[in-house]
Amino acid sequence: MKVSNVCCLGAGYVGGPTMAMIAAKSPGIQVTVCDFNQARIDAWNSDTLPVYEPGLKEVVESARGKNLHFTTEIKPAIAAADLIFVCVGTPTKSYGIGAGRAADLRYIESAARLIAEVSDSDKIIVEKSTIPVKTASAIQTILSANNTSEATFQVLSNPEFLAEGTAVSDMENPDRILIGGEQTPEGQAALESLVEVYANWVPRDRIITTNLWSSELSKLVANAFLAQRISSINSISALCEATGADVDEVSRAIGYDSRIGPKFLKASVGFGGSCFQKDILNLVYLCESFGLPEAADYWRSVVTMNDWQKSRFVEKIVRTLFNTVSGKRIAILGFAFKKDTNDTRESAAINVCRDLIAENAQVIIYDPRVPRETIHRDLLEVGVSQEVIEQNVKVVADPYQAVEGAHALATLTEWDEFRALDLPRIYDLMLKPAFVFDGRAILPAEALSKYGFKAFVIGKG
Ligand code: UDX
Ligand code: UDX
């Protein structure tokens, strides 16, 4: 079947950019992105997109109104589509069995029920959301049990590997596209239809096809391996601080080994983002469910190390500031989980700020892309009360305002603009001794000491 009408459920960080790219690269395909959140859809239809990604606006504008549409009219979009991407959220369960580890699949399930309800023609359903292995068969069961017509459904797995901040280039030139399908003639035909969509711009040899379960599992494993590298280097960052080694030098030295490779070896205050922790916990839950506690413990330790890295950083600040930060002003530079995104999900900054506030510190936060409302919401979600936020948290519009009268400054996101800060000016604005805690190792170390800062740099001491 040749695909000519695509619909996507979920206009988030994954659905929006991915569909924009498919539309831009495939003028012959009509693409409709749906979401039940009207404000989000309005934003996709406006000049201020809900997702900040370098280059995304240009891609959206090249196709929007032609073959790219954003709407809350979900049912007609499903009815008209021959291929449906499911990109709804799959948060970690916060209640009941598997709480804190298993994925909450209620949005996936309601998407499947809706598709069954409104479909009267054959459709290919593509799971793009990260989900536990064997979700495809659950979707297939719901579809068959609720089918009210003669329509047939084929479920494919097509995990997304784009990273935020580089989503446009990752999609334009992907390392690989992974598609899993059933090992039946119908399954293979559906798989071929989706291959054709990507082949509009991706070389065929980069489109990998597998069985359904391998594809679903590969997404979790890819993220677990990436996060594992960060936890590994972060564990070494602590050892470097203790011994006088320099973690960047160690990363460079080991990264030259072509078997190890140079990427994802940058020590930091801890990884964040909507995927790493969630996917590892998912993998842990899977291992447990299949009676493999040793494998579960192994992967859980990647998250434990990440939590330790964040709390270790706060302890370092408190100890250095003469064992108390009570009433002291700490300037926080960066709140997003990485540079070039406005996303703060699981950002290390959330825990760091929460813990500093618990020590009664005043935190003055600057991030070039994250608005005040997001910061307040994130802190509320981790248990900081509205009253305490009003008293102890200030969000400011430039870094120099943040450091004015501050006892310490901490960098938590590696925004490029922080590398070019006017350090003498910052030194003048801060209380003395002027303490710097560089959680991303981005400030020029020699300049810091030249201008008189007392600096702690992650992995360097
Ligand atoms: C999400 C998941 O977090 C991730 O695991 C998965 O791989 C892809 O989907 P993301 O796009 O970053 O990633 O999430 P989010 O920005 O929250 O977008 C999900 C969107 O789906 C939201 O806009 C939400 O309003 C929408 N949604 C959710 C629906 O339209 N219908 C639903 O039933 C549920
Ligand atoms: C990740 C995967 O890279 C992507 O393939 C998948 O589709 C979604 O999850 P993302 O979370 O957007 O993407 O960003 P990523 O670049 O992987 O960074 C995740 C976190 O790790 C960030 O907080 C980042 O700052 C941190 N990180 C990354 C490090 O601390 N050190 C590194 O060397 C690399």
Explain what you see.
With 461 residues, the chain is an alpha/beta fold. Helices cover 46% and strands 14% of the residues. It has 19 helices and 14 strands. The protein has a six-stranded parallel beta sheet with strand order 3-2-1-4-5-6, sandwiched between helices. The protein has a six-stranded parallel beta sheet with strand order 11-10-9-12-13-14. Strands 7-8 form a two-stranded parallel ribbon. β5, α6 and β6 form a beta-alpha-beta unit. The structure holds uridine-5'-diphosphate-xylopyranose (2 copies). The site of one uridine-5'-diphosphate-xylopyranose has 19 residues, from α9.
Rg (CA only) = 24 Å
* End-to-end Cα distance: 60 Å
Give the structural class.
Answer: alpha/beta
* Strand element count: 14
The best one-word shape is: globular
As residue ranges, the low-confidence spans are: none
Compounds present?
Answer: uridine-5'-diphosphate-xylopyranose
Mean pLDDT: 96
Topology, please?
Elements: E1 5-9, H1 15-25, E2 30-34, H2 38-44, H3 56-63, E3 68-71, H4 74-80, E4 83-86, H5 106-118, E5 123-127, H6 135-146, E6 153-157, H7 167-172, E7 177-181, H8 185-198, E8 207-211, H9 212-243, H10 247-255, H11 276-289, H12 293-320, E9 329-333, H13 348-358, E10 362-366, H14 372-381, H15 386-392, E11 393-395, H16 399-403, E12 408-411, H17 416-419, H18 423-429, E13 435-438, H19 445-450, E14 454-457
Parallel strand pairs: 1-2, 1-4, 2-3, 4-5, 5-6, 7-8, 9-10, 9-12, 10-11, 12-13, 13-14
